[in-house]
Design a protein that fits this description.
Elements lengths: L4 H21 L5 H21 L11 H20 L6 H19 L14 H21 L19 H20 L2
Helix pairs in contact: 1-2, 1-6, 2-4, 2-6, 3-4, 5-6
Length: 183
């Protein structure tokens, strides 16, 4: 994405760390949490790959349609899951945003791989920015430890900590806002 190289590397680190934690969450004993963690790991690593500064590595042109296809499949999976579990609508919006950004990057001229403005529909970018900004603000307000261990209770395993899962989603929302701002 376009922007300062140091900010891009921070975004890469944030998204990669989030993706790695989501992989850890996939070891949970709760099936629903494992499913959500897999999709979130894909998002985290995909966002990290997209955020690598163009000055360091410019992916070949065929990469962007592949990203769009991968996240398109993930969006279809989220749409299917949202039929019975409405909280998957957020995953649908996130994966659709990744498809949108991949398509925008595919349209960019090769010399201007990370172009600012003029690509895609500004209305779609604005709507996604409003959604993810609202999501970040609400998620940040809700980020309160879900369970406090006291006395003889056993602490939850790292993969089963709901407050860490919320922090993971919050950091990906922040990353999405940063990426959309560079469009």
């Amino acid at each position: 994405m376009h922007g300062p190289v140091s900010a891009a590397w921070l975004l890469v680190a944030l998204c990669a760390a989030t993706g790695a934690y989501c992989l850890l969450r996939m070891r949970s004993e709760v099936e629903e949490q494992r499913r959500a963690a897999g999709g979130e790991a894909l998002m985290g690593f995909g966002m990290a790959a997209m955020a690598v500064p163009a000055a360091v590595f410019t992916p070949p042109r065929w990469t962007w349609p592949v990203y769009a296809a991968v996240f398109g499949v993930a969006a279809l999976r989220a749409l299917w899951a949202a039929r019975s579990r409405p909280h998957h609508l957020h995953h649908l919006v996130g994966t659709s945003a990744m498809v949108y950004m991949s398509a925008a990057m595919a349209e960019a001229p090769p010399a201007e791989h990370h172009v600012h403005g003029g690509i895609g529909l500004p209305l779609v970018t604005g709507a996604l920015l409003v959604y993810f900004t609202g999501y970040v603000l609400l998620s940040g307000a809700r980020l309160v430890p879900a369970a406090v261990t006291s006395g003889g209770t056993v602490a939850a395993r790292w993969g089963d900590r709901p407050e860490l899962a919320r922090a993971c989603r919050l950091s990906m929302g922040i990353g999405m806002v940063a990426m959309l701002l560079t469009m």
